[in-house]
Amino acid sequence: MTILKYTLPALCLLAAPAFAQNAMKADIMRVVRVDPALDAVIAPGTRVGRVAGGFGFVEGPVWKNGRLYFSDVVDNNIRALDGMGNVVVVLKASGGLTNPPKGSNAGSNGLITDKDGTILVTRMGIGTIERLDEKGGLKPLLSKYDGKRLSSPNDLVFAKDGALWFTDPSFGLPKMDADPKKETKFNGVYRYAGGKLTAMITDMVQPNGLGFSPDGKMLYVSNSMPDMVLRAYDVGTDGELSNRRILYRWKKALGEGVPDGLKVDSIGNIWATGPGGVSIISPQGKILGRIVLPEVVANLAFADDGKTVYLTATSSVYRLGTKVPGQIPLYYRR
Question: Pick from 198, 144, 151, 148: which is nearest to 174 by CA?
Fold first, then answer.
């Protein structure tokens, strides 16, 4: 994927008509209706706006107490964006390495709020998940499975029972699967509950985004490469998975990028990033529409009352409104 560099402070505040005319092609920032059912999810004529930009490669957005927190994977920090468009750095060296190789994916990635108000941070550079408190302090949570180093934890979600699920691909390692720091033989999807870490999926090449249906009975996981697919599983007692199937498959012809982060709305649609932008997919695997941007979209978050959607896309953060609220995370802090 293309990484765009920047010079601070190169921030664009709330989108204005001049932006659409001068900074990006307005016709590229649009909602594409594939099925009429999309109209019940996103109102026809909804516009997408760019609210901040000039970053390295942004990922892992999460809403907390009126601000959007997000990772810059390349520039190795976590920032927070408020409703006025102001952006501040809240954690430097967020991936755990103070001097990672230039242009590497060694920063933090996925973020999620926990029940104690802290933010769980996936630190790809050192292969850990840690707690970030209000004062910027960090405390370790997870770093090993079966005595072996995690590769580069990527995305996280809490299930309805309070268990933490996360993906652990090898993207944060300089040589990925061939890197000497990689200790596990697989790139897994894990469940952490009751102090125990369990590998739930071990047969995906590069698992990435994940999320649950509103009733918690289905798990969705995107695989970035080489097969660009969205898998679905039935979820049983203690997270037991069954009935593995491919719900959706991306085509390279749609555009740049690979399946990455995803979120699920309150009626069960999966908003999954990948080639062509954000694909909005019904629980039955039917494509309803896409959100198309001029940059590769890595992830998204439902914010505020759930009807505001923030998109992290390469060097920028975008925003739009939706008629259907997103599924509110278990430990959401509005």
Answer: 151
